[in-house]
Structures are given as C-alpha cells and as structure tokens.
Design a protein that fits this description.
Chains A, B: InterPro entries: HTH_MarR-typ, MarR/SlyA-like, WH-like_DNA-bd_sf, WH_DNA-bd_sf. 2 copies of one chain form a homodimer. The first copy, chain A, is globular, with a radius of gyration of 18 Å. Chain A is mainly alpha-helical. Chain A is built from 6 helices and 3 strands, in the order H-H-E-H-H-E-E-H-H. At the A-B interface, helix 1, helix 2, helix 5 and helix 6 of A face helix 1, helix 2, helix 5 and helix 6 of B.
Chain lengths: 146, 146
C-alpha cells in the first residue's frame, strides 16, 4: 500500500467529496421535483439528442456516461418503460443493440433543460471564474479515463 | 432567466458532472463491497470520530455534511439500527439531540479507512498536481456555502 495521504490532500479531498455530493443531491432533487427525471435520465437524453440519428450503441453509451454495462442496462430498461427511449438492433451490422431517443424523450429533454441549466448556473457556474472552470474541466477529463 | 451557458461552460460542466458522478459511484460500490458502508455512512463516522467526545448535534451534522435535516434523520436512523451510532439528548442543555459514535462505529471506520483512502488515491489524488488539488479544494469550499 502506498504512503498515506497528506493532511492537505485529505482536507481538499473531503471538501470536494462532501460538497460535490451535496451538489449532485441538490441537482437530482430539483430535477426530479420539476420533471420526474433523474440526473442519469437527463444525461442519457442529452447524449442521444446529440448523437447522429439520435441513436447510440449500448456499449458506447456506457462508456460515454462512465457507467458499468449492468447499470446502463438497468437505466435504459427504466427509460423504455417510461417511453423516453427504445432499443433496436444496430442499424449497420444487425449485431448488438442501440438505444434510440423517442419523440417523447426529446420533448422531455427540451422541457427539462432550461430550468435544469439555470440550477446548474446558480449552484455552480456563477461561483467559478474562467480559470477555475478550465481546471475543473481538465481534471475531470483526466479522472474519467482512469 | 439569465443568459444561457456558453459552449465552453457547458462542455466543462458536462465533463465535471459525468466524471464526478462516475467517481462517486465507483467509490460507493468499492466501499460497500469491502465494508457494507455507504459513502454517507463513512462521512458520518469520520465527522463523529473527529468531534469532541465523539458527538455532534443533529443540526450541526446536517450542515457539516451538507444534507437536509430529513436526510440526516433517515441516515442516522439507519446507522442506529446497525449499531454504528446512538442518539442522546444534548449533554449541555438537554434540548435537541446529538448523534454519538459507538465503539462499533469507531471500529467500522478504522477497518474501512485504509482501503477506502487507497481507492481515493488511485481514483483521484494521484492524477492531480498540488495546484489542481488546491483549486478543487477552493472551488468546492465556495460551492458548499451556496
């Protein structure tokens, strides 16, 4: 096992993990109260809305959202039940499956986005300068590949 | 409603929210698999272990962990059932209630900490330089007060 974390590392880590957890909780609570969508629902809808033909292979969706394959399967099943997404065989080779955005899913995203992004601004973006936001973007791009 | 987020703000935000959510999920999964504790359990145990006489008022615990009063009540009830914490009337004035760490709670924390902090190092700390970690600490200290 490597050497223990320093006091400074531990202090910054704790601030980050407690504060970011609270941020996730607040965003999730506000989004659910306003729209019935979870944050995972929202991120799947955004990913599909931006994809060519509004469809993404299940495996690629898992890696885009940094979710395990079993979590993505559970997530998409839940969204299918609510009519936000459907599953189809891959259009190019017929092997594997793709998640496809439904018109209802696109409407749900368009209805949810303005208020959600206003919460994001108020809870996070407005409190950071450009440099801080760039550092956050760079750090979390590294972390997601770990 | 304020002006929309810029393309750059939105890109950094998405990287952060997806990657930090994945980090939370991984830490929670590994901690639960190794110890049966959730991240909220762990953070309550840490807060109590560091408090004078291992006790904190419920309201103060909520604000320390940036949780709503109802979430803290639920969290502590769950930990009482598992013998990690008990609730007592406040020692100084008899009004209000305090969460108190049990010997079993302290043992659970001591058993869990080394492997959990090794996961924290491997998943996060090792990928940041000192300056990046300091920015993260500063930014999330601001955010938690929002």
């Amino acid at each position: 096992m490597a050497e223990p974390l320093t006091r400074t590392q531990l202090a910054h880590w704790r601030t980050f993990i407690e504060s970011s957890w609270a941020l996730h909780t607040r965003l999730e609570d506000e989004l659910r109260a306003a729209t019935g969508l979870s944050m995972n629902d929202y991120h799947v809808l955004v990913a599909l809305a931006e994809a060519p033909e509004h469809r993404i292979r299940m495996g690629e969706l898992a890696s885009r959202l940094v979710l395990s394959p079993s979590r993505v399967t559970y997530q998409i099943s839940s969204m299918i039940k609510r009519g936000l997404v459907r599953k189809e065989s891959c259009s190019d080779d017929g092997r594997g499956q793709e998640a496809v955005l439904t018109p209802e899913g696109l409407t749900a995203l368009r209805d949810a986005a303005p208020a959600h992004l206003e919460t994001v601004r108020r809870s996070f973006i407005d409190h950071l300068d450009d440099e801080e936001l760039a550092v956050i973007g760079r750090v979390f791009a590294k972390i997601r590949k770990v």
